[in-house]
Amino acid sequence: MFWLLAHDVLHQDLHKSSQLNSAENHSAHKLMIEIGPRPTMTTAFSTNAVSACRSAGIKGIQRLEQSQRYLILLSPDASQAQCAQFQTFLSSDDCRLALLDCLGDKMTECEYLAGSPPNSEMLHKEDKDADEKLGLALDQSDFDFYLQFFRERLQRNPTDVELFDLAQSNSEHSRHWFFKGNMVVDGVQRLESLFKTIQKTQLSSNNNNVICFSDNSSAIKGFPIKILASSQPQRHSLLTTKRQLTHIVYTAETHNFPTGVCPFPGAATGVGGRIRDNHATGRGAHEIAGLAAMGREQWKYSSSLSSPVKILLEASDGASDYGNKFGEPIISGFTRTFGMQLQRGDSSPEGERIEYIKPIMFSGGIGSIDDSLITKVQPQKGQLVAKIGGPVYRIGVGGGAASSLAVQGKRENAIDYGAVQRGDPEMEQKLHRLIRSCAELGADANPILSIHDQGAGGNGNVLKEIVESTQPESQKGGAIIHADAFELGDSSITLRELWGAEYQESDAILLDPTKRDLMQKIADRERCSLSVVGQVTGDGRVVLTGFGGDSQAQYPVDLDLEQIAEREPKTFNLTSGNPAPPHPFYPTKPLTLDNRADCAAAVCWPTTHPLADVGVVALSYWEKLGAAVALGEQPVKGLVNPGVGARMSVGEALTNLVFAPITCIEDVKCSGNWMWAAKLPEEGTRLVAACDAMCALMAELGVAVDGGKDSLSMATQVEDFGVVKAPGTLVITAYAPCVDITKVITPDFKPAGSETTILHLSMASQILQKQPRLGGSALAQCHAQLGGQSVPNLDDAAYFKHCFNMVQNWIKQDMLLSGHDVSDGGLLTAVLECAFAGNCSVQCFFNIPECYQPEKLLEHLFAEELGLILEVQSDRLQQILLEADKNGIRICEIGQTLAVFGPDAKRKIKTKGDECL
């Protein structure tokens, strides 16, 4: 081997001992650092070296990498003060990260570290060294709880593995303390938690959820359909058809912190984690399509996070790249930018900066599940605990705690960078095929009894979750886990990293011991790792044995699940501050660019314009039944009034969803994803107001929330600016069963050889129809304003619902050619978007006094009041107008499309009889 590696072909200057160990290098003030390829990335050198070994007859070599060792010494004549300063600098993580930055590539290389045994960490009330050293991000209530828990309940010190485990798995990111906590708003105790308020929306909607607030995804009742499946999933076999009751699965996640630090891998692993949420529903589900969205800053600041252009390009590429390699299309989404200095509440005279310094990276996914697999089996003594998917790597260490900080940018960069995961979509595809094969075996033969995806907190979180019983009075759960049983991708992994690393493409399952051989057979066929790492004990304890078995005096982890769960909800004391109303909108000459674009793979022909309002998937190859999904978010309006922003987010989601024929509006279920700096003064109160407004509106409309996620660390410490908060953002995803996927209406005008009519259906309150509101509009932002307190709102829920149902009837009767919602940019923008997407000519006029007041024409054209643009054929026009008038729906004829396409297409807008555009 030495001869081969030293051969000129591989260009190696090889020695049998390190030249850095010479006598002249024996200094007390030195640092040795070794940098080499990340364990997850095989280099071209390794590929060539392994090939050379095999050609030379040397067997058993699977990987061979080269690394570089650097010895950093202080000059022998340095002063004592310089020695002390040098030693302090070398011992900091920032130093090591800086060295890695200049000596290697952070994306493909890392520092090689030696493993270490678990340590007992001393907890003192006045001493938070363990918190800072391990990057635990504990707040005072966390610290007090663990101090009391270990000192008084367990009467021992925790190990570093236990501390790291609890900090991740019990973080805000994982346990949602804010939404489940006690709220005291301006000194008044709130009667229930936000989570319970959200759950109550189910009472006013149809009872069509088969999974709700209890699994990795939610699911609603679907249809009995004809599907294509393997006749014998345990072996190579023919595909066959069968009928089964199939339900619709949806989940949504955000990956904001990782995307801000490393946009491409952050967005990619956000998609990967959400895909695993989809397939880890029940006892195994199927992924179909994804949604992706971003919110980012406008300008580059001195920050530990990435630049806006890097986030825009690399996050978009990361999400698409992972989906493409896995085989899941992105069918809907949006991109938003915002940054403004605002005077709000008790902020300083110069105001506060509101901007997406910490970005939003949203990933949603829709899928399907067999009715017989919707319920997980409870953990019982004797069941096997197994990991499936990729091996253990030192990747994503501490992501749960890092994502739960009140303000980003206050920690050492090395800790933040180490918390970012890396994705492997090829392994995800293998994992998907393994789960799909097991699911296709059916409920009785499926070896998977329960499944959870590995995310925040790594093995420490997912393995406790998989063995935790929801019926502790009859089955306590608990398990003994063996560190030696894990498949390691990096042999230098420490116990803390094995237990806490959030390496991707990995799930935990409860495995039927009688079907272990069957599971192994399928895993081998799909080339997907299966590691049986433990067994359910039934004593309610989770015990991790260290490397080498049970030789340790103290187990690295030994925790009682019931004791951990006994923690009382946190109490949050919130204040409202003194509201400072925004100034009314006043047009000025300097303009800036608009802040939002619909940006997704849901394109419209013939120009492939990314404009489609609703994403639709089929559930069967033979039937027209499917599922529809749409997004809504209005954070800028929420800056003026949080409650209005939440109501308009619901309204936008539904005005997007309306263009797919669904069963009924009461069957619509929503995922609510909250991105808010809720732990900072006044922001928590704004979130509470938004949540209450959303729930009240849903009760009136008959729709409900069945899941969601929160990211409450949307603030960043920025040099020269202090703390910059992101706009409080609520993303609503509305999804429902689609009764005919061939009747979906798209927003591209279609004047197929003849003129068609363009209609504007107003969903604004009748009283306010002639008083359009510009607050929070794109026009106001173009003038560097918010536009005053007069903000568009969903004021009349009954009228809105009536309009929704009427448009649904028209779609099912084939009376509409195209349609689009009026949203960001207003009425004129919506019309032009449809014309651009259809690549055709339009002629519009807004000089109808009964619809649009001439003296308020600017407001009418750019106000973002809820409404719809509809295109109809001439022979259907009168029927639609008569039905609208009969049912009290306010609709106006605003123009025609012309059969002039391509380069010759023109868009003419007339106001007051004059052509203005």
Automatic annotation (TrEMBL):
Domain Phosphoribosylformylglycinamidine synthase linker: 129-176
GO molecular function: ATP binding; metal ion binding; phosphoribosylformylglycinamidine synthase activity
Key word Ligase present: yes
Phosphoribosylformylglycinamidine synthase N-terminal domain boundaries: 8-110
Domain PurM-like C-terminal span(s) in chain numbering: 381-544, 773-899
Pfam family of the protein (one): FGAR-AT_N
Keyword list, A-Z: ATP-binding, Ligase, Magnesium, Metal-binding, Nucleotide-binding, Purine biosynthesis
Assigned GO CC terms: cytoplasm
InterPro entries recorded: FGAR-AT_N, FGAR-AT_PurM_N-like, PurL_linker, PurM-like_C_dom, PurM-like_C_sf, PurM-like_N_sf, PurS-like_sf
An example Gene Ontology biological process: purine nucleotide biosynthetic process
FGAR-AT PurM N-terminal-like domain location: 606-737
Keyword flag Glycosyltransferase: no
Superkingdom as given in the UniProt entry: Eukaryota
PANTHER family assigned: PHOSPHORIBOSYLFORMYLGLYCINAMIDINE SYNTHASE
Protein name per Swiss-Prot or TrEMBL: Phosphoribosylformylglycinamidine synthase
Species name: Ditylenchus dipsaci
Upper lineage: Eukaryota, Metazoa, Ecdysozoa, Nematoda, Chromadorea
